[in-house]
Design goal:
- The complex is a heterodimer of chains A (383) and B (386).
- With 383 residues, chain A is mostly beta strands.
- Chain A has three domains: 164 residues, Hypothetical Protein Tm1070, Chain: A (Sandwich); 147 residues, TM1070-like (Hypothetical Protein Tm1070, Chain: A, Sandwich), CATH 2.60.290; 36 residues, no CATH class.
- Chain A has two helices and 29 strands.
- In chain A, strands 13, 19, 20, 22, 25, 26 and 27 form a seven-stranded antiparallel beta sheet that branches. Chain A has a six-stranded antiparallel beta sheet with strand order 1-10-2-7-4-5, with no helix packed on it. In chain A, strands 6-3-8-9 form a four-stranded antiparallel beta sheet, with no helix packed on it.
- In chain A, β4 and β5 form a beta hairpin.
- The two termini of chain A are 38 Å apart.
- Chain B has 386 residues and is mainly beta.
- Chain B is 6% helix and 43% strand.
- Chain B contains two helices and 24 strands.
- Chain B is globular, with a radius of gyration of 22 Å.
- Classes of the chains: A mainly beta (383), B mainly beta (386).
- Chains A and B meet through α1, β3, β6, β8 and β9 of A and α1, β2, β5, β7 and β8 of B.
């Protein structure tokens, strides 16, 4: 037994030494910047006018098996499928049509596997997990992904394309390779404790469009209702400006997911922030399984200035991940969109700033701790 | 049984080591990130092009920065860069109260606080660092900044249009973040002269023509006088872009897709205190298509290059011959891995950063790129005179 203890102690010392010596190397994290072992695409939509293009790349030099799950945000049901990527291989498919295994079709490249199409009016998420050839979760941290949400309405005013990076949960160790993926910093990285969003006040107007584009409509005269930027654009009439619009849509997904039991995670969000004059804004939102909502006056107290910042944290249901989409339109409804990944922030636990965002321990005085991340569990169906 | 006990010890050791490493700065990053607050943030592309002609596309950039600290004011020192000289063309300070956001149009600037306008035409970078003073802005060891840029292309009139694309500023976390409030300053150092790297507060401390300035050490550089120790995380070793090859048709709309890449150097001497002339960096590109086929090319950048992918290796008009073009690659999607050749200097680095803009017909998106690895022992230098 002493021999075993000696061996184990040596292993312990060596492991600690190795870890401290390698402190300059990247630590495992949940990130949108680095390849990971689990990819989370919080927003996948196939409405009648929008579709989502999924890109996934194996950034490593080992072939990669991946198990993916579409999560329907309304029913919380999942559809899963497998793809296989050779080393450094990128692949792409659209959510509405999926991808077949057919070397002779118009989609050139090594087909990664049969990707099922999604029905119209799907709104939800996509989660992909590195697995071995037996479909057991394993950690290689080789996956990166992006989602491009495209307006396919072919309308004259629709010009909306948004793109965001998949959130990559890096693995720490393959653990016991069971179907319960522990995001606990021992098996996989934890999720951020809270998220940050900078956004324009809902409803607009948008300063740039007002200054440079069609911020208004001509009133009366020979060019009544024509789009305009200033009076000179109108024939014998005035340009009624201030008619551009801004809108921010937030999509969130809980990190705690039960894709086997299909039990929706109940989440309560606390939204707190400030506008440019430091006036506090706050609000909340409850949802089950997945949610996408406009950050408007029904959700939060209206900012008093054109821009504001918001901290988004879950008080029930565990941490969440998410993305934001900004929409801008001019006076004649020419619309464009852009997606952004959200910033991560810690949350004070205890002390005078309990529950508020923090970047370091000093932000949580007397006495609190700044929790950067929060643990979660993703349970996938076992085979 | 012995193996499983040892395995358990190893796991506990890993967790313990990870916790020990993380006990100092909060979740300290070891790589730049666009989804974490930081002490030094970079907006690789800021673009203004306004001619005021109705119907013509007008381009402007909206910058948003937030002080995410809830307990203290923060002063942000920012510089717009000149892509020809690779030095700053304008700088300014903004004081932000706790949790205060601020936003401005680059073409207009602001009057309070005073932010200079950059217009009617400008293209370059914006770099901002968290500092301790409006008068003499010295960086602090803190990580409270987040930023976003939204580039607009709008046109007025009956043929009016709106197009926007947004990206997050790339953040470099200050290492050993200060526990004090306000955060402790990072020492100024002699730049140039005969005693570079000496801690200083006045120019008189710097011999042989050196000046007392600021150097952000993005990673440590072995043999460097100024940056044997890093002040901030280092630049990535490899940057990865998942792209659609130029000329490919969108699988949704059938519209043609092209991608524009903006590459900037991590190192910059904003006032020419040490490095007066632009330094060239060779960037190597490795391109994979969906058949796992691999091609490569290279390019040289000074400090800023904004280019359509297919024009990296082909002249305008000959894009169909580019390794970034669907006509050559034959598949819709690709992976582009970019790596800078680091060089041997100990007073300058060759790290690179990038963002990409992808155009689908008339609609454009912007995206932050992925990173892999760090440049051990070969950091980057950002210098300015406060």
């Amino acid at each position: 037994m002493r021999t075993i203890q000696g061996v184990c102690t040596s292993a312990l010392i060596a492991a600690i030494a190795a870890c401290t010596l390698s402190a300059g190397a990247a630590r495992a994290a949940t990130t949108t910047e680095r390849p990971g072992s689990i990819l989370i695409f919080p927003k996948v939509v196939t409405t009648g006018t929008r579709d989502t293009i999924i890109q996934i790349t194996n950034t490593g030099n080992m072939p990669e098996d991946v198990r993916c799950f579409y999560l329907n945000g309304e029913s919380c049901f999942q559809t899963d499928f497998n793809i296989a990527l050779t080393r450094q291989q990128p692949t792409v498919w659209t959510a509405e049509t999926g991808r077949r295994v057919n070397p002779t079709d118009s989609q050139k490249g090594i087909d990664p596997g049969l990707v099922p199409p999604l029905p119209t009016n799907f709104a939800g998420a996509l989660i992909c997990v590195e697995v071995d050839t037996s479909d057991r979760p394993m950690v290689r941290n080789q996956l990166k992904g992006e989602a491009t949400i495209v307006d396919n309405s072919q309308s004259s005013t629709g010009n909306s394309v948004s793109k965001y990076n998949a959130i990559a949960v890096q693995g720490v160790s393959s653990g016991n390779m069971d179907n319960v993926l522990k995001l606990d910093d021992a098996e996989y990285s934890e999720c951020p404790a809270s998220l940050l969003l900078n956004f324009p006040r809902d409803g607009g107007p948008d300063d740039v469009i007002e200054a440079l584009g069609n911020g208004g409509l001509c009133v009366g005269g020979g060019s009544a209702n024509a789009p305009c930027n200033n009076n000179a654009d109108c024939d014998s009439s005035n340009c009624s400006t201030g008619q551009s619009r801004t809108l921010t849509r937030l999509t969130v997904l809980p990190c705690n997911l039960d894709l086997e039991g299909l039990v929706p995670t109940q989440v309560v969000l606390s939204l707190t922030g400030a506008d440019e004059m430091e006036a506090l804004i706050s609000g909340g939102r409850s949802f089950s399984c997945w949610d996408s909502f406009t950050v408007d006056n029904l959700i939060i107290t209206p900012p008093g200035t054109p821009f504001a910042t918001l901290n988004i944290r879950s008080t029930v249901g565990g941490p969440v991940v998410g993305i934001a989409e900004y929409f801008r339109s001019d006076s004649v409804a020419n619309t464009a969109s852009a997606a952004v990944n959200l910033h991560a922030q810690g949350i004070c636990s205890g002390g005078t700033n309990n529950g508020r965002g923090c970047n370091r321990p000093a932000d949580c005085p007397s006495p609190g701790t700044c929790e950067a991340t929060s643990a979660a569990t993703i349970t996938i169906p076992s085979h | 049984m012995a193996e499983s006990v040892c395995a358990r010890f190893r796991r506990l050791a890993l967790v313990a080591a990870a916790l020990a490493i993380g006990a100092g700065p909060l979740r300290a990053q070891t790589f730049p990130a666009s989804d974490q607050t930081a002490g030094y943030i970079v907006f690789p592309k800021v673009h203004v092009s306004i001619d005021g002609v109705p119907g013509n596309p007008q381009i402007d950039t909206l910058i948003q920065i937030t002080n995410t600290s809830l307990i203290g004011n923060r002063i942000v020192h920012c510089s717009y860069t000149d892509i020809d000289t690779c030095q700053e063309i304008a700088n300014f300070e903004i004081e932000l109260t706790p949790n205060q956001p601020i936003a401005w149009r680059v073409s207009e600037g602001l009057s309070r606080p005073l932010i200079p306008a950059r217009g009617p035409t400008y293209i370059g970078e914006l770099k901002c660092v968290e500092t301790n003073s409006v008068v003499t802005p010295v960086p602090v060891a803190a990580n409270d900044l987040k930023g976003e840029a939204t580039i607009y292309t709008v046109a007025s009139g009956t043929a009016g249009s709106v197009d926007i694309r947004s990206y997050n500023a790339i953040g470099f976390q200050a290492l050993n973040a200060s526990a004090a409030e306000p955060p402790a300053a990072i020492n100024r150092k002699c730049l140039g002269g005969t005693n570079p790297g000496t801690v200083c507060t006045l120019d008189s401390s710097c011999m042989g023509g050196g000046v007392c300035g600021v150097v952000l050490c993005l990673g440590a550089t072995t043999g460097s006088a100024e940056c044997t120790t890093a002040t901030h995380v280092g630049c990535p070793h490899t940057i990865i872009l998942n792209n659609f090859f130029d000329g490919a048709q969108s699988p949704v709309t059938g519209k043609q897709i092209t991608t524009r890449l903006t590459l900037v150097s991590c190192s910059e001497d904003l006032n020419g205190a040490v490095i007066e002339d632009p330094v060239q960096t060779r960037v190597q590109f490795l391109v994979f298509n969906e058949f796992e086929q691999r091609m490569s090319t290279a390019a040289i950048i000074d400090c800023f290059r904004d280019v359509q992918l297919s024009n990296i290796d082909s002249l305008s008009g000959a894009e169909a011959a580019s390794v970034f073009n669907v006509a050559v690659q034959g598949t819709l999607a690709g992976q582009v891995r970019m790596r800078a050749v680091l060089g041997q200097e100990t007073d300058n680095g060759h790290g690179i950063l990038a963002i990409a803009e992808e155009t689908h017909g008339a609609a454009t998106v912007a995206v932050n790129l992925n990173e892999v690895g760090i440049n051990s022992d070969k950091g980057d230098f950002v210098r300015y005179l406060p």
